[in-house]
Amino acid sequence: MNGLENLRARSEAARAYFVARESWRWSEALPWVAAIAAFFVFPDYMALGTQILIAVIFALSLDLILGYAGIITLGHAAYFGAGAYATGMLSAHLGWGEPISAMLFGGLIAGLLGFVSGWVLLRYHGLTLLMLTLATAILLLEASNAAEHWTGGFDGLVGISIWPLFGVFENDLWGKTYYWYALGVLFLCFLCARRIVHSPFGRSLVGIKSNVARMHAVGTPVHFRLVAIYTISAAMAGIAGGLFAESNAYVTLDVLSFARSGAVLIMLVVGGVGRLYGAFLGPVVFLILEDELAKLSPEFWQFGIGLLLVVVVLFFRGGLLGAADALRDRLKRGRRP
Predict the structure, then answer these.
(1) For residues 39 and 282, what is the distance between their CA atoms, to the nearest angstrom?
(2) Which of 7-16, 253-262, 280-289 has the lowest mean pLDDT?
(3) Burial of 26 from C-beta contacts in 10 A (0-12 / 13-18 / 19+)
(4) DSSP letter (8 states) at residue 277
(5) Following DSSP, what letter does each residue of 77-107 receive, concatenated?
């Protein structure tokens, strides 16, 4: 009887723990308050702000598979680029420039690509999976370069003309309209990601990341769930790519490059993997530092980025967000009598 009571107590404690994690905390409002405040404090930097918000969506999509499902990839730009090209070609070749539907179309195409590729790739693990994801992005880049008539090849896709948002708000030169547009899309993507990671489905992903054999033993459809989260992640990356195409009105092969896959991985590592809000902090630090270092030294700005990554990996294993949590816990312990 005592054993049954102990089991029930542990079950209730676990349920209370997950309910507490799922509930909103006041600190979660800080990034959104900061984003709104930035519009008024830095009105001349809204174009950069829009690119930061797009990078946050991209990093958030990567965090779903890397931070929670343990899927390591070096080719996530394949889905960002697929969304960017799908949105851009919809306007350049078919004349459709309604921003919301075009962006969602980019997400749909990227999601379909993620489902097809994920069904094959996720049968492999470790270094093999890492190389296959990289090869997928390289193959897609070369295919885009070969299909020059549709993608513009090395010269890039031109002729993208996006209609005013809601038929009223045009993409102004200062980027203010698309800043709010990107912020709204980010908020919806974040709500979706937060709901996923705190759901039973999200908890099963953490279980798969921790011990695949055990999840197989309890009857969890591991491959199906990995493909599902990979598809969702790809679709979210495609939405980020679609936003990129709309806000810049051009798409080049760079959206599919290894450099973009590596950059978003660095952003996530710097911010903190498997924390959701690490996907917010990393792109902000990375892109602002990149912008400032490029002004100081156009030739050697990457040295500063590399140094930041080395420091974070060696001394802040949980990223900058993990370091902030550790400092907060240390201060709390210091206050105890």
Answers:
(1) 19
(2) 7-16
(3) exposed
(4) T
(5) HHHHHHHHHHHHHHHHTT----HHHHHHHHH
With b for 16 or more beta-carbon neighbours within 10 A and e for fewer, the 85-111 pattern comes to bbbbbbbbeeebbbbeebbbbbbbbbb
Contact 239, 187 (CB under 8 A): no
Rg of the chain over CA atoms, in angstroms? 21
In whole angstroms, give the CA distance from residue 26 to residue 11: 27
Q: What span, in angstroms and rounded, lies between the C-alpha atoms of 141 and 175? A: 28
Dihedral sign, CA of 271, 61, 288, 188? Answer: negative
What is the mean pLDDT of the segment spanning 315-331?
Answer: 82
**Half-sphere exposure of residue 63: CA atoms within 13 angstroms, side-chain side:** 32
Give the rounded distance of the alpha carbon of 193 from its chain centre: 10
Given a contact cutoff of 8 angstroms between Cβ atoms, the answer to whether 95 and 300 are in contact is: no
Cβ 99 vs Cβ 278: under 8 Å: no
Residue 176 CB neighbour total at 10 angstroms: 17
64-123 pLDDT, tens per residue?
A: 999 999 999 999 999 999 999 999 999 999 999 999 999 999 999 999 999 999 999 999
